[in-house]
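Write out the 3D structure for:
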Amino acid sequence: MNVKRTLHILSRLSLAQIPNAGSRNCSSGVFYESTKITNNLLDVNTLYMLDRYSKYRPSPISIKHLLDHGKEADITDSFIFLKREIPTRLASMIMELKLLPEDLRKQRECGIILNDYITSFRELLEYEHESGNDKCIDRFSKSLSTIRRRHLDTVPIMAQAVLKLNQINKTEGVSETIQYFLDRLYTNRISIHMLISHYDTLRGQTKTLIGMVGTIDQHTDIPEIADAAYRNASVLCESEYFESPKLVCTALDTTDENPETSKTVSATYVPSHLHHIFFEIFKNSMRATCEFAEKQQIAELPYIRCRIFKTKDDITIKISDRGGGINRKTRGKIFNYMYSTAPSQVTSSGGSYGAGLGAENLPMHGLGYGLPLSRLYARYFKGDIKIASVHGFGTDTYVYLQRLSYMAQENLPIYNAVSSAKLKSIATQVPDWTDTEKEY
């Protein structure tokens, strides 16, 4: 390696920039141990490769691309793509982790996540020059499984760090800088998890023309997913409120002129993503409905209505409740991490509060992560979630999905000068509006 090049990299990625390095404000021995591990992981070669891979642009892929490739089930092609793509996505996030505000960077949990990302990055570098024979692919698959397990609890671990930061600063929700970063961190995690789980599922799967291809269902029955998510959410609701609102679900395919089949809406999508979105929205609607009914002394709980529409380009899902609605001041904050209108819950680094979709210890409310993460899942394949509410009556939640699989392409964070500037300067920018509180 060229000496000048090496010195240049070291100057850009100096240990002084690494979270927690040299901090005098932390008294925890675990804190210094985490820093020591980070320093050991970032040797000269790793720093050089980080600099190199962080300059690559992630390659977003569409559901159609995943589907077409999955039908061929060519594991060698997958290996060639993933051995470069996943390190690229890991490198981008490692660079962004080093640019976080100091108060968050010095949290022990933040150091744990950084070490996990660096470790995963280093493990995948071993395959950079491999051609992809059977033994190599077997080792690669095991490495991917290890990486997937390692990052399973990224969401609750980072939530712990943010929670500690909020307790120190006595703030509600998070700042714009941290909100911006968390959106990128969790989207990055969703994308890597998607690539690995899709790859794992395809291994050993026979060629198929219908049904599941990897993690993608070519005929995802949306009303059926909604019903399953509702039943799961109602179990939590009944355990806390001893009852749950009923669900009335209807569907209409506006492009189908046959009245017998137009009431069934299906799509090519990832069922687990859709289930997560439905589950979180139903949880919110059930809690609001139960608490509002008790407050207003309503004997019978108002039902929750889910309407699903399939049009030429989009799929629109409207979930309506009569749970008292949200005032305008609150509505502007509901997508902020760590903000919740419900009583707060104590998080634990041992639980998968947003990482594991089927976690049994998932609480009913209070973490402030349900809607923000659900919106990331929707936006990941270029959908979205919007909220409309009438304070004192109820709330309508709109979920938008791409109908066309080639349009449902990954929406990924890119590490570049723009993202660096935002992470460094958002918190210190001078407001350009008179309404600095941004209540509405």
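The chain has two domains: 3-208, 215-402.
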